[in-house]
Write a structure and sequence with these properties.
The protein has about 280 residues and is of the alpha/beta class. The protein has one domain: NAD(P)-binding Rossmann-like Domain (Rossmann fold, 3-Layer(aba) Sandwich). It is built from 8 helices and 11 strands. The strands form 3 sheets. It has a 7-stranded parallel sheet, sandwiched between helices. A two-stranded antiparallel sheet has the order 3-4. A two-stranded antiparallel sheet has the order 9-10. Helix 1 crosses helix 7, helix 2 packs parallel to helix 3 and helix 3 packs parallel to helix 4. The protein is globular. It starts with a strand and ends in a 6-residue tail after the last helix. Belongs to the short-chain dehydrogenases/reductases (SDR) family.
Length: about 280
């Protein structure tokens, strides 16, 4: 039975990933700074929660080593923890932007290194999955530090894959587009999350005394697939990359973005549909 650790697995994409691995029969551990409001479950099976600030390298090493001792192995690490508020580079303090890079780039490096220390001595090696973003592949105004960190994460994953291939530790990246989670609604709507089932609902937020509406259905239309991803769909992609079916796949980037974002140029030059 595989042992899987999902960072930031208490909500949103991380919880969806955890549920898919639970469904597949794995022993799943989710970690984060705050316990989930309700257990992460799939049927009668529930993920175990461990408190952890992934930016604390020593604490991450201790957790990975302890899980390997208690379960006999640590087979999969999903570096999912991350995120950012919307803030231009000119706004906020320098430390605010530094924290975004620390969470989205340095923390995955720390956790991957901690997992490698365990995995390299196992007969079957292990699998490290980095949860990347399309923000790291194109300009990201309003989230520049996040985009830069995700671009760095892709480079980091490729380097680790090359360094650790002789140890049997595979490192791959999933490049995500928008996923229908409460965090997406908080990011674009500015309000509290309404639950993962309401991705098409309008949100309201107040900025500078004015009320602004963000139509999340309009966001979905910016994706070629015409909808946002579901967290479990990300989990299914993780399950494949962590499985023996992908045993020769390392250093790869798998796009999980519904065909990508529609380009304004394509929209502006599109031929009108015939009547």
């Amino acid at each position: 039975m595989a042992v899987v650790l999902v960072t930031g697995g208490t909500r949103g994409v991380g919880a969806g990933i955890a549920r898919v691995f639970l469904r597949d029969g794995a022993d799943v551990v989710v970690c984060g700074r705050h316990a989930p409001e309700c257990g992460i479950t799939d049927g009668a099976r529930e993920a175990r929660y461990e408190p952890l600030d992934v930016r604390d390298a020593r604490a991450g090493e201790e957790l990975c080593a302890r899980l390997a001792r208690e379960h006999g192995s640590l087979d999969v690490l999903v570096n999912n923890a991350g995120g950012t508020p919307r803030r231009t580079v000119a706004e906020g303090e320098v430390a605010d932007h530094a924290r975004v890079v620390e969470l989205n780039l340095l923390a995955p490096l720390f956790m991957a290194r901690a997992a490698h220390r365990v995995m390299r001595g196992q007969p079957g090696g292990g699998s490290v999955l980095m949860i990347g973003s399309v923000s790291g592949t194109r300009p990201s105004p309003g989230t520049a530090a996040y985009g830069a960190a995700k671009a760095g994460l892709a480079s980091l994953a490729g380097s680790l894959a090359a360094e650790w291939a002789p140890d049997g530790v595979r490192v791959n990246t999933l490049v995500l587009g928008m996923v229908g989670t409460e965090r997406l609604r908080e990011h674009f709507g500015g309000g509290e999350g309404k639950g993962d089932g309401e991705a098409g609902r309008d949100e309201e937020t107040r900025s500078g005394g004015e009320t602004r509406r963000t139509d999340l259905a309009a966001l979905a239309r910016t994706v070629h697939a015409g909808r946002l991803a579901e967290p479990e769909e990300v989990g299914e992609a993780c399950l494949f990359l962590a499985s023996p079916r992908a045993r020769y796949v390392t250093g790869a980037s798998l796009a999980v973005h519904g065909g990508g974002e529609r380009l304004a140029l394509h929209e502006a030059t599109a031929r009108p549909e015939p009547p």
